[in-house]
Amino acid sequence: MQDVTLLTNCIVVLVVPREPEPVPSNHKISSSVIAGIVGSALVFGILILALSWALFRIRLRKLRGILEPLNPGFKNFDFSKLNAATNGFDRRNMIDVAGNVYRGELDGIQVAVKRLSEKSEEGAHEFITAIGTISALKHPNLATLMGSCTEQNQLLLVYKYMENVSLQHALFAEVKSELNWETRYKICLGVAEGLACLHESKLQVIHCNIKPTNILLDKDFTVKISDFEYSQFHDSKHSFVCRGHMSGEQIQGFPLTPKADVYSFGIITLEIVSGQEICPLGGREEVCFFFFFWAYKHQVEGNLTALVDPDLKSSNYEPDEAHTMLCLAMTCVNPTADDRPTMSSVVKTLKDSEKFGGKKKNLL
């Protein structure tokens, strides 16, 4: 009964929400105004793109005017011909997925066509810088440019195709090339001379991305270092497939010097002499670092020649030369950048090693 009394004494208040007051008509944004704003933004964006592309074409014409007298063989290719040569840039003709490079045949000549970002400020800047850099640096061990194409909003660079593809292919492909000692020594010296040219040129180029896929090999296994023209665009932490070829200062993001390339050269030399891949594609990074400590262990034990590829041991090779090259490689991979040699001194050591058969005690 008491509960009933309490209930009857309660006052129930119902709060009914008020309808929202209509927004005054002068506060409403009409659909026509919105459409006008969006349309204006689109037109402005298109104008900016068109202006950027026009400026790019002007800069490119000026650059060609400077470079053509210096490079008589440089050509402006028709897009239709390059498209036909690569079978419409068919993925089956792609020889470098990461670099967007396609193989093709042009007027009976095998070519490699590199496709850059289409019609973007970044791509245009990279395109112009690449042409300028590669045209300014001439050396037998640096890749050369045959020409370019900017038709139909495309940014294409055309290189001569390398018959033996790359060091990656020659050493580590399923059907790898038979590389004797003389050829391996030639490759090491070619890489060293190419890097020395980059470092000592007026442009003072630091490659930043030396790895087996960027060391191209022609029909005679002559080295042609590629991708140096894009050195300033490399993200030093992500341009490598794995960190095995990267120096400690590069991994940590410190300012780079030519000694970063020296470190990469040391790792490449260990791979060439041993026939072992420091970082197999898709392999774990622990494998990369194990490779280095494996080499260091043999150095401490005074048994560096144990690293030599068994395929070489069954043929005629120069043990003294191999020992010199391995010692040189271990000097190049010194964790302290200042204690690594310069590439010009590396070239001298390799040439002296060849001259003296690796037996001269003070080569290093």
From TrEMBL:
It is found in: Membrane. Its main location: membrane. One of its GO terms (molecular function) is ATP binding. Keywords: ATP-binding, Kinase, Membrane, Nucleotide-binding, Serine/threonine-protein kinase, Transferase, Transmembrane, Transmembrane helix. Its EC number is 2.7.11.1. It is an enzyme of class 2 (transferase). Pfam families: PK_Tyr_Ser-Thr (PF07714). It catalyses: L-seryl-[protein] + ATP = O-phospho-L-seryl-[protein] + ADP + H(+); L-threonyl-[protein] + ATP = O-phospho-L-threonyl-[protein] + ADP + H(+). It is a single-pass type I membrane protein. The keyword Transmembrane applies. Residues 87-356 form the Protein kinase domain. One of its GO terms (cellular component) is membrane. This is non-specific serine/threonine protein kinase. It comes from Coffea canephora.
